[in-house]
Amino acid sequence: MGILTQLNTLPEKLLSCQPDEIHKVLSGPTLIHLEGQRKAPILISTLLHGNEPTGFWALQQVLRPYFVTDAVLPRSVSILIGNPKAAQKNVRSLPGELDLNRVWDKGDSEWHDMAQGVVHEMKARKIFASVDIHNNTGQNPYYACLNKVTGKNYKLCRIFSDLILFFDQPLGVLSKAFSKVCPSIILEAGVPQDPAGIQKVRHYLETILRIDELEENGIESTDLAYHVIAMVRLKEGVKLGFGDGPNSKVDLCLDDELESHNFQVIPSGTCIGWHKGSNDKLEVTDNEGKLINGKYFDFSHGQVRLKHALIPIMITHDIPVIQQDCLCYLVSPFDVSSRLSPK
Description:
Layout: E1 5-7, E2 30-34, E3 36-46, H1 54-69, E4 73-81, H2 84-89, H3 110-124, E5 129-134, E6 143-146, H4 151-160, E7 164-166, H5 174-178, E8 184-188, H6 195-208, E9 224-234, E10 240-243, E11 252-255, E12 271-275, E13 282-285, E14 297-298, E15 303-306, E16 311-313, H7 319-324, E17 328-335
């Protein structure tokens, strides 16, 4: 499997080391199989992005008591630790690397081969469920994501949070690859240094390890979630800043308070920023990848105003992350039962 290492025991140092020390124990992407009382394993993936360590810290807290007492885990677990070298630098990915949560689709890189190797191995082990743990760089509530609306996925999400997001894009994410194989979701556990987020993930993992079966419970028409309707990216070469008014030193200055509006409705006509020069500072695409730049934002008179009431999520002030990924996603409430997939 090329760059993927597989282990059948957990290196003891992983129970106490910090994320930036994992590279001393693991040289690259590593899949660790631990046997439990229930044989069908849960895949728990963490650090696909090196600056998102909450899943790793929560796993340490979950696993440590079992190793101290030689107790048997309630269920078999396969742990994917994605990018130790990026974790060493506390960055999403290293320069020149592919995003490890965009390689779970077709491709010919060694990272795509690694991803397909993980899928193949977990299918052979008759995987029970997949949980991919992430952090946000901006202030967001805790929420869970799914790519396929089923009763089992919905139940896995609700154990973590009542706030649920459905998305089709971007392609190549781990959760989407595993949704073809088993119940598969993403946990978004707040900012990386949030102790409450670590404890929330720890409690979640302890809970799902004890689940015997996931029932295909019905989803009611009153069950609501959000779905992504657009992705907003910064155009290449645009110099971005944040503040409370126009800034001649940058091409686009966004309102300093914008991050506080994640998962909140921002009224139509609201000024969210200021710009200079041409109006092509942002690139907005729908779920089919079609450019819809003029649909949501008005760049008249040096300001950036909303053409419609919008709900943004994942806004962050971290400019390198914005440049690597996106500024935000736009979402809309929807009836979960309307997207129910066949069992």
